[in-house]
Amino acid sequence: MIIIITNTNLNTGTETSARADNRAFDELRNLKIEAGILERADGSAYLEIGGNKVLAAVYGPRELFVRRLMQPNRAVLRCKYNMAPFSVDDRKRPGPDRRSVEISKITSDALSPAVFLEKFPRSTIDVYIEVLEAEGGTRCAGITAASVALADAGIPMRDMVVACAAGKSDGNVVLDLSEVEDKEGEADLPIALMPRTGEITLLQMDGHLTEEEFQKALDLAIGGCKKISEEQKKAIKNRYGD
Amino acid sequence: MIFVEDKEIVIPGDILSDEEYHSGRGTFKENDKVCSSLVGLVAIRDKKISVIPLQSKYIPKRGDVVIGEVTDIRFSMWNLDINSPYSGFLPASDVFGKEKRELNRTFDVGDVLFLRVVDVDEVKKVKLGLKGRGLGKFRGGILINITPTKVPRLIGKKGSMINMIKDETHCEVIVGQNGVVWVKGEPAMERVAEKVINMIEDQAHTSGLTDRVRDMLAKLLGREPQESEIEPEISDEVEESGELEISDEPDDIEEYDEIEISDESDELEESEEPEEKKESKEDEMD
User: What is the ipTM of this complex?
Assistant: First the structure.
């Protein structure tokens, strides 16, 4: 990865873009992806980005027993995002909450356009995302890992899905927000896209950005996605000893 | 223009070639480009490009022979798990004819059967049948699950791989197209066969597999690696595995059946698929 350090001068205050962890504005945290690590799942992936540790497992396509969810012409993609109680500093109360329900939904929505669901009518593909350690940007980490796990499970897809966030922190538009930058920053913009076509499958934003800043953040996030996508490819190929 | 080499590992979304090639299995066309939809190995045949998946689920197809486990008994049929996203059913009429008998006396929950896929309708209802040579209930033995796409690899050309395992371990081995393998023999030999089959599954995408299997068998059976009578011309290319040839010497009915059938269904895939859609749907359900 190329590291571009633009402003290292810490004294000038307004000019500086030095971040809490000394990253450049367009630098990702350390990234590691591994595919096929769970024995019993059809497909799985483990991903680390910065302090995040995420496990994704895919089961299916398999028989769907919930009749009302069944689609006669395609499979349903069910996602479950869960944070371990020990994944954050203050113990998280276990079980689904408003936030995890939302993330489960948007993960499913972000992945569905890439999967050939119509090849498996009346069945289900289940994706489980377990956050073992969280440090900002877990939804993006989850989507990226889930996509690797889907590919590992041999599920036909149009393209991989890769997610990355950009945002505004300390007045600067930066890539891949850490937990502190996310909480104390002005805005957060997670996106997911399919790298070949550049089609965006998820775009969320909280906080405030001007139109210019938004454009800049979006470009940064797209650039970040491209870099992560390379790691995804490597992870899958490594699994088969390439 | 082609962007990949034969046997290269590709991942979903990789661009394989432009429109001068036809899109085969495991690929799709988008904006005049052929792209991969799977993680697998590229196979180029003439002007057709396809991707052989490294992992997959079994999708039932008419004519396949499968191994299934009875999961439920209903009024006039058995439900079976056939290691697939779609469960199958075996109508009682297929077994008893017009006669009325108690179903659970014949096959109980947990029994393992060797069946043929009689029909798959539009809503993916899988009708199974027991009519045919070698089909029926298994007694004893162990079951091993492998990825269905690796079944041709396990059988080998003209059944070479599977025959080698049978000869060396003196086990009966039956392979269902759904990736379920039934092995019966001496308990120690069953375990040897299981190890070997799992090894084949792990290394199905590599070349030189037949030799390694032979070595492994020799080692597990505590013998010196020896020159086998099996011709080493068995090409160890994964894409070869798609086309099995009929073994012409039926030394054992069941084994003959299985190899012959796996070949048939490979052809089915090419020629009979459009026909299947025309078939009228049979409503065998009560």
Answer: 0.84
Contacts of A242 in chain B (CB under 8 A): 9
* A157 interface with B at CB cutoff 8 Å: yes
Are B13 and A195 in contact by the 8 Å Cβ rule? The answer is yes
Q: Do B157 and B243 fall within a single domain? A: yes
Indicate if B21 and B35 belong to the same structural domain. yes
Residue B43's closest CA among B32, B35, B52? B52
- Domains of chain B: total: 3
Substitution target from B39, B89, B146 for chain A, most A beta carbons within 10 A: B39
Residues B131 and B153 in one domain: no
For residues B222 and B215, is the Cβ–Cβ distance under 8 A?
Answer: no
| Of A72, A123, A151, Cβ closest to residue B12 | A151
Q: Which domain holds residue B26?
A: 9-53
- For residue B28, the domain's CATH number is 2.40.50.100
A123/B26 Cβ within 8 A: no
Tens-digit pLDDT profile for residues A130-169: 999 999 999 999 999 999 999 999 999 999 999 999 999 9
Give the Cα separation of A43 and A35 in Å (integer): 8
